[in-house]
Amino acid sequence: MSELSQRVVVVTGGSAGIGRATVERLVSDGARVVTCARDGDRLADAVGALRGVTCVTADMVDAADRARLLEGTLTEHGRLDGVVLNAGLGWAGLVEDMPADAVAGIVALNLTGAIELTRLALPHLLAAARERGRGDVVAVSSVAAWAQVPPLTVYSATKAGLAGFVKGLRREVTARGVRVHTVNPFFVETEWLARGHGHAPTSDADAEGRLSRGIAPERVADRIAGCLRSPWSRTVSVPRWAGAARLGEVTPVNRLLDLAFSPQADRIRAAARRAVAARIGDRTVA
């Protein structure tokens, strides 16, 4: 089971960015992939024509949709070998400027949705480990899980929470054959910021010029595929040098970050507003 051929993997958020690149990578390696997104038309246009892919319109914030995604996977394939927890949202700005619904939505998707989907999947992943040698959970996290800095404070908190969940889960299931991984990218060229601020592109053409700056999502997909092949649970950064962000959790570096960022709140707010305006196509923000 170290290879991906014929393994059944669920990938959330497959219509664009890291999720889409991951679906493409896994099916090229022979996996059978069930993927979901809230925009079913966009999802079908993105990956629906790929051999071995099943597309499901589903929102991972919705409990019924999470259950339906797994039930459909088991009905179609009769098994589940891995889950890639990719769907996520971000919001750039100071906490005091955040709408309440933005806070609730980010926590519900990035943390609660990921934990709940994992909880539903675990009995089937444990069965895969008993019957075929392994099951896998791959959480797409962020270097922000290690260094929580504005203007991504709430997003960072959800990723730090996800990291804590992964560590605890490893201690529950590793001896029973389920590997639990996190992939922690630096900035990635995706629609992440536009989506988090309520302006999700409706097509690849619509996304042109609105992607966040960063590394290609295919690089992250490569590391996700590597985790699904790994004989042990892994925590990886993309690029590798981004793992230096772990120093953000260590004293005195964490105190230096406090001192460096706190006096810059007004500048951070202004920079975040400009970045968001560029991603949502609003040129009125200076």
From TrEMBL:
Q: Which Pfam families match?
A: adh_short
Q: Does the keyword Oxidoreductase apply?
A: yes
Q: Which UniProt keywords apply?
A: Oxidoreductase
One GO MF annotation is: oxidoreductase activity
Provide the Gene Ontology terms for cellular component.
membrane
Q: Which superkingdom is the protein from?
A: Bacteria
Q: Which InterPro entries match?
A: NAD(P)-bd_dom_sf (IPR036291), Sc_DH/Rdtase_CS (IPR020904), SDR_fam (IPR002347)
The family database entries (PANTHER family) matched by this protein are listed as: DEHYDROGENASE/REDUCTASE SDR FAMILY MEMBER 7B (PTHR44196), DEHYDROGENASE_REDUCTASE SDR FAMILY MEMBER 7B (PTHR44196:SF1)
Family listed: Belongs to the short-chain dehydrogenases/reductases (SDR) family.
Q: What name goes with this protein?
A: Short-chain dehydrogenase
